[in-house]
Specification:
By secondary structure, this protein is α/β, with parallel strands linked by helices. The chain is built from 12 helices and 23 strands. The strands form 6 sheets. It has a 4-stranded mixed beta sheet. The radius of gyration is 21 Å and the shape is globular. Bound molecules: shikimate-3-phosphate and phosphoenolpyruvate (PEP). Phosphoenolpyruvate binds next to helix 3. 3-phosphoshikimate binds at residues 24-25, 29, 164-166, 193, 308, 335.
Length: 422
């Protein structure tokens, strides 16, 4: 039975320091690069959650050895890639888009499947691109099969990556191991989540790979060795946003230690968003501290580059004053669930006034009432419900456990934050 979680109400201003586990996006890139590298890698402070455990299992099933090191670190020893193997993608975009190119480098038959909702997520572009680069793949969405021969010619491919930046990232991450590397050209409406592509490029370069990004809408990865990694994974800044939001909506103060002064994580954009909504935002040696105002202001903002922050921003907007407009996020219809429809339905279910537009949401902040908040198997829908519940008595979040996709113990962390306040 799905767990019903009465979201705790804040009895006053939330005041806490909240350390966050590692970044999902960095951890899963690091695992892929380490599995393809020229020697054993050490990943310290990786995220250990459903998405990253699925990535580790997928790479293990293809031959890599991934073992526990001290303090939750991971040691990765690459090996010749081979099937047969069965890859469970769960609902992880990074697994379903980053692992097929790795599988195309293996010998044997590798079958992929995932959660029911994962079968609806856009994927055909990656599989078509891999076919164009020489791979033998049957299917165009989950479930599908890769028939690997142990090598991939690679070369030039043009794709429409407007549905997901992960199409580009997935091809680039394995490309040093393609015989001719890869040149990926994008043709179509704008690519979302640009910082995530910059993260991919930066991590490849850090591993000694040559990447040319000098032409607009084009990425060139030269073939060559991937240097083994010895990395400290940054905390997950997108997962930090519900905790920072707790300070913002209650007029409290929350510090996230270890906030990097420079990062490719899109979650860093929360600093500007919260400042625009009237919060005081300070980044110093203690970390990032957000102090909420008496009343949050509405915001008009293009979130295309940082779409995964939308559920948090929508919750903030619903608790602000006046009308907020969130745009540039049509691609969220292909995320864990159709996030625009889900946010519209759930906020309106609490008495809100929210309307979907072609590429976003218009949110009028009105008094909300308690009620059921459905998660749609979406970790960020669940955490958005928790934010609202701080200020709206009687919000009951269905399936809070779905947060384990990217946070091992969200309910425990949320309760600890509120207990520290008391
Ligand atoms: O590469 C990544 O790690 C991610 C890219 C983004 O995907 P989209 O470009 O599909 O939005 C983001 O939303 C997702 O949470 C993680
Ligand atoms: C879109 C997201 O995840 P995924 O990596 O599964 O695409 C997300 O975490 O908001």
């Amino acid at each position: 039975m799905t767990q019903l979680w009465p979201a705790p109400v804040a009895t006053g201003a939330v005041r806490a320091t909240v350390p966050l586990p590692g970044s999902k996006s960095i951890t899963n890139r690091a695992l892929v690069l380490a599995a393809l590298a020229d020697g054993p890698s050490e990943l310290r402070a990786p995220l250990r959650s459903r998405d990253t455990e699925l990535m580790a299992s997928a790479l293990r099933s293809l031959g890599a050895t991934i073992t526990d090191g001290p303090d939750g670190s991971w040691r990765v020893i690459p090996a010749d890639l081979r099937g047969p193997a069965e890859v469970d993608c769960g609902l992880a975009g990074t697994v379903m888009r980053f692992v097929p190119p790795v599988a195309a480098l293996a010998v044997g038959r590798i079958s992929f499947d995932g959660d029911p909702q994962a079968r609806k997520r856009p994927l055909g572009t990656v599989l078509d691109a891999l076919r164009a680069l020489g791979a033998d793949i049957t299917g165009s969405s989950l479930p599908f099969e890769v028939h690997g021969t142990g090598a991939l010619p690679g070369g030039v491919v043009t794709i429409d990556a407007s549905a997901s930046s992960q199409f580009v990232s997935g091809l680039l991450l394995s490309a040093p191991r393609f015989e001719q590397g890869v040149t990926v050209r994008h043709s179509g409406p704008p690519v979302p989540s640009q910082p995530h592509i910059e993260m991919t490029v930066e991590m490849l370069r850090d591993a000694g790979v040559t990447v040319d990004t000098s032409r607009r809408h084009q990425w060139r990865v030269e073939p060559g060795p991937i240097r083994a990694l010895d990395s400290d994974i940054e905390p997950d800044l997108s997962n930090a946003t519900p905790f920072l939001a707790a300070a913002a909506v209650t007029g409290g103060s929350v510090t996230v230690p270890g906030w990097p002064s420079r990062t490719t994580q899109p979650g860093d954009a929360i600093r500007e968003i919260l400042a625009r909504m009237g919060a005081d935002v300070r980044l110093d040696s203690d970390g990032l501290t957000v102090t909420g105002p008496d009343q949050l202001e509405p915001v008009e903002i293009d979130l295309r580059a940082v779409g995964e922050l939308t559920p948090t921003v929508a919750a903030l907007a619903a608790l602000a004053s006046g009308r907020s407009r969130l745009r540039g996020i049509a691609h969220l219809r292909g995320h864990e669930t159709d996030r625009l429809a889900a946010l519209e339905a759930e906020l309106n279910g609490l008495g809100g006034q929210v309307q979907q537009t072609e590429d976003g949401l218009v949110i009028d902040a009105v008094p909300l009432t308690g009620g059921a908040w459905h998660s749609y198997a979406d970790h960020r829908m669940a955490t958005a419900g928790a934010i609202l519940g701080l200020e709206v008595p009687g919000v009951v979040v269905e399936d809070i456990a779905t947060t384990s996709k990217t946070i091992p113990d969200f309910p425990g962390m949320w309760t600890a934050m509120l207990e520290e306040t008391a």
